[in-house]
C-alpha cells in the first residue's frame, strides 16, 4: 500500500508542484501581504499566552490553503496549525494512512505582527510519517524554497547545498526562543553555552531551517515538536545535504514521540556534535 501510494504522490508532484506554488503565492497575496504592516490592535489575538499570537492573516491563509491543497490531491487531509488549535484531535491525521498536508500559514507570527519581514508560509506533504515534499515561502522577501525527497532542495529554482562549516570557528546554533520555552526546556538547552558553540535565539523556524540549508547557519536546536513548524524545514535541510537527530541519536519523527531537544544541522558531523551535547543535559 505504501509503495503504491508513494508512486501516486510522486506522479502528483511531477504534475502539480507548480500548482502548489501557485496556491502558496495566491494565499499570501490575498490574505497575508495586504495585512503586513497594516494590522490594527484588534486584528491580533493571543492563543496560549502573550507571545503566542494569531491574526486574521493566519486564519484566512490557512483556510484558503486547506481548500486548495485538499482539492489538488483527492483523499488527502490537511493538518494546519490554526485548525489544530481549534480542534486538537485533527493532529491525529499524521498517524493515519491518508496523505497529509502540514500547513503553517504564517510561521513567525510575532515578526509579522511587528512589521518584520522574517516570516514565511510552510507547507509539507507527508505520508505515514515520511515527509515527501516541502515548500517554504517567504512572501515579503519574494523567496520560495522547495524540496522533494530524493530530488534535492532549491531556492528560487537554484540548487541548495549546505556543506560543512569552515573548520576552526564556533558553530552558530539557533535555539528555541526563551519566550517560548519552559524553565525545564531552557535548562536542557543550556548545555549549548559552551566552548566552540555560539547559540542565539531563533526567529521563524522555517527561515532558520532555510538558513541551515543555505549554509548560512550551522544548526538549530529546538525543544518542541509541532509538525507544522518542522516538517517542511527538516526535508529542506536533508535534501540540501544536512541531517537531523534527537538527543537520543535518532532522526526526528513528525508524528511525535521524540526525545527532546533535537537538532538539524548542515552536515552529519555538526548534527552529531550538537546532539551529543544535548544528551548531556540532565
Automatic annotation (TrEMBL):
It comes from the Bacteria. Its cofactor is Mg(2+). The keyword Metal-binding applies. It catalyses: a myo-inositol phosphate + H2O = myo-inositol + phosphate. One of its GO terms (molecular function) is metal ion binding. Mg(2+) binds at residues 81, 104, 107, 229. It is an enzyme of class 3 (hydrolase). Coiled coil: none annotated. InterPro entries: Inositol_monoP_metal-BS, Inositol_monophosphatase-like, Inositol_monophosphatase_CS. One of its GO terms (biological process) is phosphatidylinositol phosphate biosynthetic process. Pfam families: Inositol_P. Its EC number is 3.1.3.25. Keywords: Hydrolase, Magnesium, Metal-binding. This is inositol-phosphate phosphatase. It comes from Streptomyces broussonetiae.
Amino acid at each position: 500500500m505504501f509503495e503504491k501510494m508513494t508512486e501516486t504522490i510522486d506522479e502528483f508532484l511531477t504534475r502539480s508542484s507548480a500548482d502548489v506554488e501557485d496556491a502558496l503565492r495566491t494565499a499570501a497575496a490575498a490574505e497575508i501581504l495586504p495585512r503586513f504592516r497594516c494590522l490594527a490592535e484588534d486584528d491580533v489575538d493571543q492563543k496560549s499566552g502573550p507571545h503566542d499570537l494569531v491574526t486574521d492573516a493566519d486564519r484566512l491563509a490557512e483556510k484558503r490553503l486547506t481548500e486548495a491543497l485538499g482539492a489538488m490531491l483527492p483523499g488527502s487531509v490537511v493538518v494546519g496549525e490554526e485548525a489544530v488549535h481549534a480542534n486538537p484531535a485533527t493532529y491525529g491525521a499524521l498517524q493515519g494512512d491518508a496523505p497529509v498536508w502540514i500547513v503553517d500559514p504564517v510561521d513567525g507570527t510575532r515578526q509579522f505582527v511587528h512589521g518584520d519581514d522574517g516570516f514565511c508560509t510552510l507547507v509539507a506533504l507527508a505520508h505515514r510519517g515520511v515527509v515527501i515534499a516541502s515548500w517554504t515561502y517567504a512572501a515579503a522577501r519574494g523567496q520560495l524554497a522547495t524540496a522533494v525527497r530524493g530530488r534535492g532542495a532549491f531556492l528560487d529554482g537554484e540548487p541548495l547545498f549546505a556543506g560543512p562549516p569552515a573548520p576552526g570557528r564556533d558553530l552558530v546554533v539557533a535555539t528555541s526562543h526563551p519566550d517560548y520555552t519552559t524553565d525545564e526546556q531552557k535548562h536542557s538547552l543550556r548545555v549549548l553555552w559552551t566552548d566552540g558553540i555560539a547559540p542565539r535565539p531563533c526567529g521563524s523556524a522555517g527561515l532558520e531551517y532555510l538558513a541551515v540549508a543555505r549554509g548560512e547557519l550551522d544548526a538549530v536546536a529546538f525543544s518542541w515538536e509541532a509538525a507544522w513548524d518542522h516538517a517542511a524545514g527538516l526535508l529542506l535541510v536533508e535534501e540540501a545535504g544536512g541531517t537531523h537527530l534527537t538527543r537520543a541519536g535518532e532522526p526526528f519523527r513528525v508524528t511525535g514521540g521524540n526525545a527532546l531537544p533535537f537538532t538539524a544541522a548542515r552536515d552529519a558531523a555538526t548534527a552529531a556534535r550538537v546532539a551529543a551535547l544535548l544528551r548531556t543535559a540532565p
